[in-house]
Write a structure and sequence with these properties.
The chain is an alpha/beta fold. It has helices spanning 9-19, 50-68, 80-83, 87-96, 112-117, 139-154, 168-180, 232-240, 261-267, 324-339, 352-359; strands spanning 73-77, 120-124, 158-164, 184-188, 220-223, 246-249, 252-253, 257-258, 277-283, 286-288, 306-309, 316-319, 344-348. The protein starts with 8 loop residues before the first helix and ends with a helix.
Length: 363
């Protein structure tokens, strides 16, 4: 089961704040390509600020987690448009209020309530892997994320990076660039970008010391899938046998069977014997038919938060993440993860706002 307590009314009220504003590993799928004339027209005053809705949810989740544990760490994955205002959002504001454009924060402004809600940022493809594995990341595609990385460092938050390459020269270059940026670095050498295995080699900067907080961690393992293990016990035992300072995990074996409280206690110690950190992962905007909450009769439109099939993965459905029922489910999800005794959480799939913005062009 996901939790040992009933749904917390305080959590519900925190998340409900986002729904009152009705006026981004797995990349979010894009809507099927349509000609401009094929996209249904949505009047400007009917287009919501999907980015702010996501920010509000993140702020609510962070407030709840830190009420439970003031030392709890909240990480975000990618989604630079939540941290810093981008052109689309500025246009959304100024086109709706053309006589008062000066009152709206300019492009590049740091969104401070969101920044205060997160303790760090994980960036995919910091040097290699975006869009293609084993290739230098496209500078233009990475430009918003690099700007976000600068903000995170300047504000004293923790930066984590994942690079996707296996050639020795690329690995060395990626590690050097991450170190220069002061980032906690991981190199995925599998070639599939799934983050689904424990590397055979030792962690870089293997560390015998106790890891009391994320700032003292010298290495980490992001393991977001556990399909390769035949049982939950096999998976846990494999993780226990590692010396990573930080484990970043989907806390469900094969997305359906939760880690137990006793298994979590085992995970909190490196093979060397010293304490480490364990973070859970919370998927924010893609529902999977393999996850613990899925019901046999669910389909697009039932329940109401199931918005559209993922064209790249038949097991996934894009959700209306602002829907009260989905937010209730996410609230229970994070509560259960915290009940396990994790030290922090990674909020994944935050860039869902891009999917819905593509369906509602401003002009």
């Amino acid at each position: 089961m996901i939790g040992r307590r009933g749904f917390n009314l305080g959590m519900a009220s925190l998340l409900a704040a986002g729904s009152a504003r009705a006026d981004d590993s797995t990349p979010m799928p894009k809507p099927k390509k349509k000609r401009r004339s094929d996209i249904p027209f949505t009047p400007l005053d009917k287009i919501p600020n999907h980015r702010q809705w996501m920010r509000d949810i993140v702020v609510g989740l962070s407030q709840y987690a830190k009420q439970r544990n003031p030392k709890f760490v909240v990480l975000a994955r990618n989604a630079p448009g939540l941290l810093m205002k981008e052109t689309r959002e500025w246009k959304w504001e100024t086109l709706r209020d053309p006589d008062n454009t000066d009152k709206y924060p300019k492009v590049g402004t740091v969104m401070r309530p969101y920044l205060k809600a997160i303790d760090g940022l994980l960036i995919d493809g910091f040097s290699y892997g975006v869009p293609a594995y084993g290739k230098p990341s496209d500078p233009e595609m990475m430009k918003p994320l690099m700007a976000a990385a600068t903000v995170i460092r300047n504000e004293g938050r923790r930066l984590l990076t994942v690079d996707y390459c296996d050639a020795k020269t690329m690995v060395a270059d990626a590690e050097a660039k991450a170190a220069k940026a002061g980032a906690l670095s991981y190199i995925d050498r599998d070639g599939d970008k799934l983050l689904a295995r424990i590397p055979s080699e030792k962690p870089r900067s293997e560390n015998i010391s106790v890891v009391a907080d994320i700032n003292t961690a010298k290495n980490y393992l992001p393991m977001l899938r556990s399909d390769a293990y035949g049982s939950r016990t096999d998976w846990i035992n494999a993780l226990v046998a590692t010396n990573y300072d930080l484990l970043l995990l989907d806390t469900f074996w094969r997305e359906s069977e939760s880690i137990t409280f006793d298994q979590m206690k085992k995970l909190r110690y490196k093979r060397l014997g010293s304490d480490r950190l364990v973070f859970g992962v919370l998927p924010m905007s893609l529902a999977r038919d393999t996850r613990f909450y899925w019901k046999p009769d669910w389909k697009v439109g039932n329940p109401s938060f199931l918005a559209a099939p993922d064209p790249n993965d038949a097991a996934q459905t894009i959700v209306n993440y602002w829907d009260p029922k989905w937010k209730e489910l996410i609230g229970k999800y994070i509560q259960g993860i915290i009940d396990l005794g994790v030290d922090g959480i990674l909020l994944d799939q935050l860039e869902a706002y891009l999917y819905f913005e593509d369906l509602m062009p401003l002009e």
